[in-house]
Amino acid sequence: MGSTADKIKGTANEVAGKARQAAGKAVGNHEEQVKGSIQEAKGKAQVAKGDAKDAVKKVVDKA
Q1: Residue 59 DSSP class
Q2: Cα–Cα distance for residue pair 7/24, rounded to 1 Å
Q3: Contact present, 8 and 46 (Cβ < 8 Å)
Q4: What's 4's DSSP letter?
Q5: Who wins on pLDDT, 62 or 1?
Q6: Residues 46/13, Cβ–Cβ less than 8 Å
Q7: In 3D, which of 11, 13, 7 has the Cα closest to residue 55?
Q8: pLDDT tens digits, residue range 23-55?
Q9: Residue 1 — very low, low, confident or very high, per pLDDT cuts 50/70/90?
Q10: What is the dihedral of CA 44, 18, 13, 39, to 10 degrees?
Q11: How far apart are CA 61 and CA 42, in angstroms?
Q12: What is the DSSP string of 13-57?
């Protein structure tokens, strides 16, 4: 998967995770809040992976 795809999926997971946390908080469902937090963290990791791929590509392109 390319860096752009990682960033897009990551951002989508971050947004979905935040929404899930908010929904869980609204209805008092602690488990859903935790799952949302985990999904948000997964999204942040995916975005970071995409950024790392970009950084490696830039180094390789300069070489």
Answers
A1: H
A2: 25
A3: no
A4: H
A5: 62
A6: yes
A7: 7
A8: 999 999 999 999 999 999 999 999 999 999 999
A9: confident
A10: 80
A11: 29
A12: HHHHHHHHHHHHHHHT-HHHHHHHHHHHHHHHHHHHHHHHHHHHH
Residue type at 41 in one-letter notation: A
Residue type, 2: G
Instruction: Kindly give, in sequence order, each residue whose CB lies less than 8 Å from that of residue 36, ignoring residues fewer than 6 positions away.
Output: 16, 17, 18, 19, 20, 21, 22, 23, 24
Distance CA 1, CA 15 (A): 20
Q: Whole-angstrom Cα distance, residue 59 to residue 50? A: 15
C-alpha 36/C-alpha 6 separation (Å) is 19
Enter the tokens of residue 4: 């752009």
Residue 45 makes CB contacts below 8 A (sequence gap 6+) with 10
